[in-house]
Structures are given as C-alpha cells and as structure tokens.
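## Example record

The block below lists the input lines for one assembly entry, exactly as stored, with component labels intact.
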Amino acid sequence: MTDASVSSPVLAVEDVAGHYGDSHILHGVSMHVSPGEVVTIVGRNGAGKTTLLRAIMGILAKRAGSIKVFDRETIAFAPEKIARLGVGYVPEERGIYATLDVTENLMLPPKVAEGGMSVEQIYQLFPNLHERRRSPGTRLSGGEQQMLAIARVLRTGAKLLLLDEPTEGLAPVIVQQIGATIELMKKQGLTLILVEQNFRFASRLADRHYVMENGRIVDEIERSQVTARMDAIKSYLGI
Amino acid sequence: MSMQALFGQLLVGLINGSFYAMLSLGLAIIFGLLGITNIAQGAFYMLGGFTTWLLFHWAGIGYFWALLLVPVIVGLVGAAIEKTLLRQVYNLDHMYGLLLTFGIMMFIQGMFVYFFATAGRPYAVPSALGGAYNLGFMYLPKYRGWVVLASVVFCFATWFAIEKTSLGRTLRAATENPTLTRAFGVNVPGLMTIGFGIGVALAGAAGVLAAPIYPVSPLMGADLIIVVFAVVVVGGMGSILGSIVTSMMLGLLEGLTKVVYPQGSNMVIFVIMFIVLLIRPAGLFGRER
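Predicted structure tokens for the full assembly:
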C-alpha cells in the first residue's frame, strides 16, 4: 500500500458508472492498482465484477467517470486504443476463436509493447498447446482453452493484465497450473487484476482484494488482513 | 444435340459461374465482417464495367491497365461509402443495411442512367486475347478462357489472403468476435472499411472481365445481382470456398440446362434455391445459427 502513494498507479479508476443495455450496473466504482501488484476483485455473482473489467477494457458501451491507464485518461478511448497502452484481456468466456487454429489464436493480438514472451517460450510453458498447435481453437479442452487465452496476452508485452475467472469450471490440477502461471507472471513484474470466485485460489496469489457488491466497491482487504477478517470475507461471498 | 453446342454452353456456364463466384465471394466477406447484405454488389460490378469503358474512351487506358486500376478505384469508392454511410447502421437491425445498400444501388445506377442512358456500349476484346483455340471438340475463344482463368486467380488470391495471411487471420477474428478483437488492440472499424473495399473490388474486377463480353450498360449489374443472391442462398454465407464451388456448379448447371431444356435455363438456379431452402435452410456450405 505504501508503494501505491509513491509510484504512480498502473490503473486508477475514479467514480466509474457503467451500463449494460438499459440496466445501470456500476455505481461510482473507484479503485487503483500499483505496478507489479496482483489485485483481485471478489464478490458474489452479479456484483458487477466482469462489467468492471469490461469498463476498464473499453468494451462496455456506456461508461462514465475516469479511468486512467498508465496515467492516460481512457474514458473516451476506443478499446483498441486502450489495449495498445499495454493492457491484456483474458475474458471470462475465454474468447478462443473457432475459425483460427491454436497458433493463429496465439499470434492474433498485435504486440503492444516490448518484453512479451516469444512463441517458443510460450510453447515451452504450455507443452499441451504446442502439441495441438494446428487444431482449431475450440477443439481444445476447457483447461487448454484457458491456457491459450492466458498465453495469448503473454506474447503481446502487455504490462497490465485483466483476468476474468481464469479457474472457472476447471479441474484442480489445471487450476494449480494456472496458479503457477500467475505466480510466474507476477515474478516477471506484470500487474494483474484478477476476478475470481474461488477465494482460496485468489488469496494465495493476491496482494490485495477489492470486494464488490451491487456495482460498488464495498471493502478493500490487504493480504495481511485476510486471516483476521475471514468472517467478514465469508459473509461477503456467502461461503 | 451436338458436342459443339454442349461444350459451348458449358463454357458459357463456367463464365457465368466465374462472375457469380467473384460477386458472391465479395458478398460473403462483407456479410461476415459487417453484417450487411450488400444489395449494391451488382452496382459495383457495373461501376467496374463502366469505369473500364470510361478509362478507355476518356483517357485511352486499355484493358490490362484497367484490370489493375479498376478494382482499386471501385474499392476506394466502396471504402468511402463504408466510412460515411454504412458505418451509421451497424448498431441497427440488419434490415437497415439492406435498405441502405438498396438506396446506394439505386443512386449509383440512377446516376449512370442519367448521364449515359441505358443502351449497351461495346468494349473491344483486347487484341492479345482475340481469336480462338481449336480444342478439337470445340472452339475456345481465347478471351472466354481468360475470363475463367482470371476469375479463378482472383478467387484463389482472395481465399489465400483470408486463410493464410496475417491480415486474413485478423479479418477472420474480427468476423467471429469483433468486440474481443478490438480489446486485443486491433482496429476493427478500419478493418471493416478494408473488408468492404475488398468485397466490392471483387465485383469491380468482375465488371472489368465482363466488359468485353457483355455490353457495358448501367443496368448490367441489376440483372446479375438477382441470380447472385440465389447462388448465395444455395451456397450459404458460411465459407469462402463454399461460395466459389457453388457459383461454378450453378453456372455449369445453368449452361447444361440451356442445352437440354433452354426454356428452363433462367429458372434452374431458383428451382435449386427452392429445393435447398426446403432441405438445408442455411445453404449447402452454411452453418446453422
């Protein structure tokens, strides 16, 4: 936390409102993320976590307030412009293209900054993907698709990554592998925002947690406070 | 029936199939990427034919230069229309795109009727492609062979560009999931302009190929587009290769019908369309949604 006030944040969200169609989903959300931090957004289903990521990415049709990415105000930016500031997105539905094979999926996002992993490094990290590099993206298993969705943004050199429910519906062994990958990303100094239902998984990785309820951030919990505040967390998440 | 007549009609069928292929291929790209059913595709074909004629009569620019220049010109006109007009209707129901392109077609066609009247204008076959080969069983006019060859090259080049290049990879991704593709930093709106340009440039190129065969007239596209839409319905909007294969097959079938039952030749594609709609509403190569 002390870092956050010194170095300028990678992401600063101020009083953001967001609509999905006619419904008002985000009500004055504010949050900030410092370089190299892993921050999760937790909360029950329908709290607005995915919508918040979509708002940051610029793919929410109606959004207002202020969202600064690497000190640039992006509220009026098109999504492609936000991505090119160095933001990588791993959507909840994974977004693997059926008309592209694995390698094509991997190569699709343009490089947005230096320092991304090479295709060889990525295939070393995910040997499964290498074996299946000529298969259409959607022929992969759920776990492989998730690996591919993560691998895809590692190539681009993006420094701020938004991961939406990366472990949803996956077998424990795959969840472990994804956890290890996130650890690796953290070691490389990437900044991560993780939306996660699985709090046990999230709490092992994250430096900080934001709790969302009904389109608002209602609490902020430091890693060091997690054990002490477990009862509150449980009641937030209904577990 | 003589062999000469049979092969002659099959050749005509193959040529018509070539035109269907280039137009429907363009339609498939445009529909996939923009979600717009471009009724004006026939008008861009006519624009191609007329620009070829105008380049020669106003500027003395011959056929082969036209084959290079006209698709670029037509593509640029298309890109300008996409940027100014089509862009406005993407968030509306598909019907608006249909109506808008219908209006664009009426406008382009109407302008040419106003300035040039409807009479067909002849365009000479380039001398390098004049004459015919005697194949033994038939005479093959060189130019007609050239049309089939050129359209195969155009179609193959388009297929290759879409399936095997990085621009095509991005184009396919933007077709499948435009929002996510933008979130990866791809300028999808720009890509849509390019896609529409390429789609109508194919129609323009077909217009160049057609100029020495069919009289160049403001209405040449209006006749063709009805059949092309039937071809698209039969083939389905699903695949690039599918629309090429369907076009050639239906062109040949049309030619064959001219030999065995001439009265039915204008109708046969529509009969096939009727049957396909009953059995496979999404078309032969289309995917059900």
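The interface with chain A takes residues 166, 169-170, 172-173, 175-177, 179-189 of chain B (CB under 8 Å). Chain B has one domain: 10-217.
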